[in-house]
Records
---
Amino acid sequence: AQSVTQLDSQVPVFEEAPVELRCNYSSSVSVYLFWYVQYPNQGLQLLLKYLSGSTLVESINGFEAEFNKSQTSFHLRKPSVHISDTAEYFCAVSNRDDKIIFGKGTRLHILP
Amino acid sequence: DVKVTQSSRYLVKRTGEKVFLECVQDMDHENMFWYRQDPGLGLRLIYFSYDVKMKEKGDIPEGYSVSREKKERFSLILESASTNQTSMYLCASSLDHRAYNSPLHFGNGTRLTVT
């Protein structure tokens, strides 16, 4: 069975500081990994995904995540955050058996 | 751009009422999903549908049913609403039922309060 653990329910960080949102997964088979973002009063939208190939994947707004198979992690990072990054971030895992499993989410609070 | 529209942003219903949550997508997606989102619990899958008139139970189907009479519309039904069904409900659609092959597109959610 698959599972996803987001280690922090809330992360406060000052504007322009770096941030890392942690995600660990467990799965007995090959996985596909995702980060979804939910901005205030909106639904979720895909931020980035790892399917295969390069273990470092990037989004268009400066986030990146690295697939680390040995540590079963897919942490999300950004070198310098902005107020507009305030949102809840969900890590998710899937495999060829179709189902996607979401983590419980991490709220990113940007402090001025 | 894919649009998933949920008919109500906020709903307040009384215990025992029958409640319909409607969702419409405009991109001819085969697959549609209903999730509920609760603080500290993340997203939990209630029901999903891979085709018209087809439905499959998710992880927490108890107390809910669904209807998919047309491809673009997926309704969630609470036959007799209870206070523990107070939650944010999110509808989603995708082109491919394989999650790795196409992303989920979500509506903005319906916040249901049952009093």
---
Amino acid sequence: AQSVTQPDIHITVSEGASLELRCNYSYGATPYLFWYVQSPGQGLQLLLKYFSGDTLVQGIKGFEAEFKRSQSSFNLRKPSVHWSDAAEYFCAVGARAGKSTFGDGTTLTVKP
Amino acid sequence: GAVVSQHPSRVICKSGTSVKIECRSLDFQATTMFWYRQFPKKSLMLMATSNEGSKATYEQGVEKDKFLINHASLTLSTLTVTSAHPEDSSFYICSAGGSSGYNEQFFGPGTRLTVL
């Protein structure tokens, strides 16, 4: 069975500071990994995805994530956070069958 | 990227009535669509997978007679909440799968259902 763990329920960072959101997964084969962002009352927007190849993935809005097979991790990073990045972030793992399993999400608060 | 729309964005209904939510893929054909439910401060819970022209596959614990899913065309799937109760109040999100084969999904903006 596949599963995703986001250890941090809530993270607060100052504007301009760097950010790392953690994601650990359990999956029986090569995973397809995703990071999504959700603003209050909105649907999910894809930030980036990993299917294969280069383990460092660049996404939109200045985000990147690194796939580390040995650690079963796919952490999301951003070098300098903006106030508009405050939102809920979800890591997900999917199978070719089409179902995605989502983590419980991490709420990001940005201090001015 | 591909665009998925949902209608309505918000709906308030009385207990016992039925509500239909539409999910449309606007610029691509979606052979598969997914319906999720999200509680406040919680992750998305997959309710069902619908494939065009066939019956939906429901996740364990989801009442198929209460949450009716129809996927009559490659661009439209509907979720009907029948005999709605206050506990059905939630945020419902659909997603549409493309044909890339890599499980890429495009999410709709969600529908907020409030049952009085």
